[in-house]
Amino acid sequence: MNLKHISLIGICLVVAGLSACSTAPSSVSELNKAPVKVKIIAMNDFHGYLNRSDNAELFLIDPDNPKKVAKVKVGGAPYIASLVKKLKAENPNSIVVGAGDFVGASPAISSFTQDEATINVMGEIGLEVSAVGNHEFDRGKTELMRLQNGGCAPGKVIGKETCIKNNTFNGAQFQYLAANVIDDDTNKTLFPSTYIKSFNGVRIGFVGLTLRGTPKATRGALGLSFNDEIEVINEHAARFKAQGIEAVVVLIHQGGGTTAATLNDQTCPGLSGEILPIVHGLKNVDVVVSGHTHREYVCKDQQTGILLTQANYYGNVVTDINLLIEPGKGVLDKKANSLPVINDQNKKIPRGYTALKPDPAIQREVALYDDLSQKKRAVIQGYIAAPLPMVTIEGTTARNNNVEHLMGDVIADAYLASAPKEAKADIALLNPGGVRSGINKAGAVSYDNLFSIAPFGNNLFYVDLTGEQLIRLLEEQWEGANCRNKPLKKNGVNMCGRLLQPSSTLTYSWDVTRGPGKDFGKGNLVLVDTVRIGPNQEPLDLKKKYRVVTNSFLAEDGGDNFTVFKQGTGLQDMGVVDIDAMVHYFNQYPASSPMPPPKRRIQCATCPKFY
């Protein structure tokens, strides 16, 4: 193997607040011979959601009526803290770990502090080690290293926007790992590759890394190279085993999904996704803690015996992983459960579950950051006549990337409206991942609502595509890697893909029976004769150029595998940020004339119904 860099893994990491990792291998004679029980408490994709949310719900099996599903409200950092304390009390041999994306695409309470709020709170909760996720790179490697190492953010107001507590920021109390992320300036890993911790004479080696495709998922990966996940993991796992380390756990920001309708369905129906070929290629690994796809699962891989987990997103779920390890030999047993972070917003909870009480110290910490941004967040920006929900995958809280969202339509309309008149833009499109939440109630819409929906701070661009290129772009929605992202089957129909959210000036129909999932360049699901462009709904001209407004993630980077954007001409930064475009758009709708719900733009007569 020829990796650009492999960091030493036989050395214990020594970082602030971490004192439990081993310093040298112990001989078997020195070990306690009795098997040791170890608990790993895992989270992923928190994205700065410090506050509980009315929109965050999970579906649980009702033990009093197994044929029915009970819905509970979940999430909130103070409640996570309480659950973590409860789990640690069950077994002192515990460690809290993460699989990345604790920051980035964060709501205002975290983003307004440059995500220092989340870094501080997760450290206080007890997070000890985490992989980096793609969103950790959103502001670039220098800013990410600042979050790890400390220091105030340049150009920000100390005490209000950065260094909130006592005008200082000491950096993360936990250690980021980046085994496959190479800093091109140093030819070394950006962060350590591994972490070792000892529990009563047995040692667990952690390898932390992110998906190799991170540069396609964020604009902040400049100056970094990303190595193959399987090669990197196997290299470190082999060295761990050579050192006599009894258990190997991978923390990786890559994932998959199942078609399970309720939490903790360990039959893992329809398990699929980018994580599976990685798991199938691993050796000497016991557990893989995954992330990125915002799904929940606990699965035993049939090919390798590896325990594979993911804990939903936004702090709605914590994975409770329990290992029985024999000193000098290895893992005798491994089990896990997905535990809902049930908060006190629930009026009724199924038997067998308990609402958590908020941890007082973390509640005070969150309140500090909440108060800093409250005044700006509370400003009303407009009014809506009907809810604009985010469509979730049935039975889960995971965003459904395969459908048109009402909120996605509104964002696309806001994009288009932000284009200068002289640009003569025709349509607007955004990726479904750009719709981070919805609005579930009619009435007033605050800045906080809008920032939660579009927290990225992406600049808006326009680019010219021919009619032929536009059709090819739309076909990319259901091709290749986009069809392996959060795959979903409904009534036996493969509904994979990422559906670009269109402005009202683009309508079309497509046919799922033509078969999504083809290689890039070979899809033919769009019914070309149905495509209409512009306010007058004119038929598409394959040879004509059309001006498309979109965000920098798509326009500059061809993100989410929408490569056709990079084939366009006349790329122009409009000098408008996405959140500002939305604020301006919603400002048009006062209480006396609220925004009506948008009409659907995409039709699929052959698709199962999701609404």
From TrEMBL:
**GO CC list:** outer membrane-bounded periplasmic space
> What keywords appear on the UniProt entry?
Hydrolase, Nucleotide-binding, Signal
**InterPro entries in the cross-refs:** 5'-Nucleotdase_C, 5'-Nucleotdase_C_sf, 5_nucleotidase/apyrase, Calcineurin-like_PHP, Metallo-depent_PP-like
Domain named 5'-Nucleotidase C-terminal: residues: 396-567
Query: For the Calcineurin-like phosphoesterase domain, which residue ranges apply?
Result: 39-295
Q: Molecular function terms in GO for this entry?
A: 5'-nucleotidase activity; nucleotide binding; UDP-sugar diphosphatase activity
Q: Some GO term, biological process aspect, for this entry: which one? A: nucleotide catabolic process
Has keyword Metal-binding?
no
Tell me the leader sequence span: 1-20
The text of the family note is:
Belongs to the 5'-nucleotidase family.
Name of this protein = Bifunctional metallophosphatase/5'-nucleotidase
Q: Per the UniProt entry, what species is this protein from, by scientific name?
A: Polynucleobacter wuianus
